[in-house]
Amino acid sequence: ELSAMDAIFESVSGLTTTGATVITGLDALPRSILIYRQLLQWLGGIGIIVIAVAGLPMLGIGGMQLYRAEIPGPTKDRKLTPRIAETAKALFFVYLGLTVVCALAFWAAGMTGFDAVAHAFSTVAIGGFSTHDASMGYFQSNTILLICSLFMVISAMNFGLHFLSWRRRSLAGYRQDSESRFFLGVLLIGVAVTCSYLILTDTLSLSDSLVHGLFQTISITTTTGFATQDFATWPTFLPVMLIMFSFMGGCVGSTAGGIKAVRLMLIAKQGVRELKQLVHPKAIIPLKIGKHRVEASVVSAVWSFFAVYMFVFVTVMLALLGTGMDFLTAFSAVAASINNLGPGLGDVAANYASITPVAKGLLCLAMLLGRLEIFTLLVLFTPMFWRL
Hints:
By secondary structure, this protein is mostly helical. The protein has one domain (4-387). The chain contains 17 helices and two strands. The protein has helices spanning 4-15, 31-59, 64-70, 84-108, 113-124, 142-155, 159-168, 172-176, 178-200, 206-221, 237-245, 261-279, 296-322, 327-338, 357-371, 375-380, 383-387, and strands spanning 288-289, 292-293. The chain has a two-stranded antiparallel ribbon with strand order 1-2. A hairpin with a 2-residue loop joins β1 and β2 (292-293). α2 runs parallel beside α5 and α9 (178-200) packs antiparallel against α10 (206-221). It is globular. The termini are far apart. Keywords: Cell inner membrane, Cell membrane, Ion transport, Membrane, Potassium, Potassium transport, Transmembrane, Transmembrane helix, Transport. It comes from Haliea salexigens. It is found in: Cell inner membrane. It is a multi-pass membrane protein.
């Protein structure tokens, strides 16, 4: 039986596709409760995509401005389709199509029909809820893990780009998209480091290091939060590194959490430009994403978002430390909540049932701020917005 705070925490976690849970004994729960949790994440996922691609640009916030400034062709300076309703409909069918294909793939790989649909809901939503306490480790199948890894990567990429690629019947858009290349590059580096470290430290066998290293890196980096085993028991370097990777999350216009790849790419590019400027102080070095120059106002907006994101992260972490929580648990819990990841380290490695109601309330706030990209939630509480 859940308390009111636990029920709120579970619901917020589901709708924000965070995947943090206070429930244990999932295998013994009625199927109606299990599918409700999965459906909550799935509905939260499509809601986030529509808000990110169609809603936030109306308010002049969100990462899609960067995306439209960089992508050539029909997305530049205009919506995917002329009207928000049509855009939302198009994105919904892409989302639904991916879910159906994912469910069929899981079923073909050996899952029951119920588990296949339930896990397709949380995979495409980048949610991480499972119908089993052992999460994806329950199925003991490398085929299922590889299928899940593929769909987590696809779902962490821009759904607007998926729609355009489908409409054009071409994959060229992915090759032209700087954010997708950056995201996949960082992901590959993370997978290589994780697998290599597991092998060199003899943490797992060679085959298990490759499979679990690949799966766990993709799961944590994309902020899905599925698990095959308790990654918190791996050498300390890896869990902390993976938590740091989750700050990137996925691409804008996806169901993934985090700061988003395009923002970190822009911050990295500006850092490189500043170093070049120090070497050549009189040179004029434009900042570009792809072939397109990025305006100073966009750079300023990205840095403002990053600063506020870090400020919220540190503030909530300090508040949790004030409740008596240890540093590792507080750090990972806030990172897992604001990045909409789910699993943490320390006392929240398995679930969040043991933390105080106050801590749960603070983490609910962090989930909402992270999911709605902070400024959206702040704008909604600004009186000026409601007078417009």
